[in-house]
Design a protein that fits this description.
By secondary structure, this protein is an alpha/beta fold. It has a single domain, classed as Ribonuclease Z/Hydroxyacylglutathione hydrolase-like (Metallo-beta-lactamase, Chain A, 4-Layer Sandwich), CATH 3.60.15. It is built from ten helices and 14 strands. The strands form two sheets. Strands 6-5-4-3-2-1-14 form a seven-stranded mixed beta sheet. A hairpin with a 5-residue loop joins β9 and β10. The chain binds zinc ion (2 copies). The site of one zinc ion has 5 residues, from loops.
Length: 275
């Protein structure tokens, strides 16, 4: 399974999970034209996508979902709470329930509720039915609930929110109320939070970590990567290997594909954790 990020940050998020014969788009936080052009940059025809799965209804995750699903006839998978928070639209919908797996082609999906100031925010795991390969996606997580590391266990690849550096956010230009929202229990994961989550679910088979939803004001790709790198070295990753297995997604352009099994693609290698 290969993962590409069409773009990620507070102005839009969309992630392509490509399982060979099955392609799933997680979140459609860009308009139809941007989605079409970023998919084209990744060499992916929109018609080849089998389903859209939404993590939650916030505009930076869902603003293009209904229009894109209508245009390309993509079925829309989301929890009842997320579907109820979206405007009504004539697109094919499939309701997902936490703890109950569902499938799209060769992929089995599962969701776990995470705390965030949305109707019902979901972390997701996609497992390839034939190879057993597992990809996790955890975006917009206010704090790590007890069940999340277990839900994200045995992954080959994890896409995880690494939103802000706490010191940079606190000293930065955001108004006090927005800082409180981001730092709060229903807000976003900091670089340190993301690293602690990855440390809690790290295992020998974890090959790559994609850092997502980085703030352009309160974070930088190098800071986010170095925070994760430090923690993964503590988990036994070899120094240079750790850097090769961590990649930061950005807002303005697609990155990937990153693979959990196939080794280096776009300079991303494998973590080689010695746990
Ligand atoms: Zn959100
Ligand atoms: Zn978001």
């Amino acid at each position: 399974m290969r993962v590409s990020v069409l773009g990620s940050g507070s102005r839009g998020n969309s992630i392509l999970v490509d399982a060979g014969g099955t392609r799933i788009l997680v979140d459609v936080g860009f308009g139809v034209r941007t989605i079409a052009s970023r998919l084209a940059q990744l060499g992916c025809a929109p018609e080849s996508i089998d389903a859209v799965v939404l993590t939650h209804e916030h505009v930076d995750h869902a603003q293009g979902a209904l229009a894109a699903c209508a245009r390309w006839q993509w079925p829309l998978y989301a929890t009842e709470g997320t579907l109820a928070a979206l405007p009504n639209a004539l697109v094919p919908v499939r309701m997902i329930t936490h703890g109950k797996p569902w499938s799209v082609g060769d992929v089995r999906g599962a969701s776990c509720q995470v705390p965030h100031d949305a109707a019902d925010c979901a972390a997701l795991v996609f497992e390839h039915l034939r190879t057993g390969e597992r990809v996790g996606v955890a975006l917009d997580v206010g704090h790590v609930p007890e069940q999340l590391p277990g839900f994200l266990s045995r992954l080959d690849l994890l896409v995880v929110e690494s939103n802000h550096d706490c010191a940079q956010l606190q000293a930065g230009p955001y108004p006090w109320s927005l800082k409180q929202r981001i730092l709060g229990a229903q807000g976003h994961l900091s670089n340190d939070d993301a690293a602690a989550l990855v440390a809690a679910c790290a295992h020998r088979g974890l090959r790559a970590v994609v850092l997502a939803h980085l703030s352009e004001t309160n974070n930088s790709p190098s800071l986010a990567v170095s925070t994760m790198d430090k923690v993964l070295r503590g988990c036994g990753a070899r120094a240079t290997a750790a850097r090769r297995g961590i990649v930061a997604a950005v807002q303005r352009q697609p990155i990937g594909p990153v693979s959990g099994r196939m080794g280096r693609a776009f300079g991303v290698g494998q973590l080689e954790l010695s746990l």
